[in-house]
Recover the amino acids of this structure.
């Protein structure tokens, strides 16, 4: 597997070609974290949440401090309405990347979803403070 393969699969993910990405990568060994991440993302986008959760868990076994993976697993937990697990992962992602506004905005969305409006406002305010041009967080803050 070469970097051009990863670029191709990343493009497939961005273009929404989830099934094609999964078919194209099915023979790749699961011990490659980048391929596993792309497979997990495609599976989650296809709303195969239990399967995606398994892939994210396997990836976190390999890379337990990868904020991006924690954040994406948190989204799966959000869709499964598993509040405590969702917020635990978002909290860990924020702890790992405290200067990343997207981590706060993502957690804010989850907090709002689960009814914690004050917590969501605080996170949106932090996201805007870190990225004053974040129109989505400004909008959600309103």
């Amino acid at each position: 597997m070469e970097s051009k393969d990863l670029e191709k699969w990343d493009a497939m993910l961005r273009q929404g070609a989830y099934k094609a990405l999964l078919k194209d990568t099915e023979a790749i060994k699961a011990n490659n974290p980048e391929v596993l991440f792309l497979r997990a993302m495609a599976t989650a986008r296809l709303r195969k949440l239990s399967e995606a959760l398994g892939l994210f868990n396997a990836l976190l076994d390999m890379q337990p401090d990868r904020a991006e993976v924690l954040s994406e697993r948190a989204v799966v937990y959000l869709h499964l309405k598993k509040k405590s697990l969702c917020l635990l992962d978002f909290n860990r992602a924020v702890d790992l990347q405290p200067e990343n506004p997207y981590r706060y905005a993502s957690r804010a969305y989850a907090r709002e979803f689960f009814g914690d409006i004050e917590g969501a406002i605080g996170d949106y305010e932090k996201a805007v403070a870190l990225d004053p041009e974040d129109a989505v967080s400004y909008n959600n803050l309103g």
Notes: The mean pLDDT is 94. The longest helix spans residues 49-62. The two ends are 46 Å apart (CA to CA).
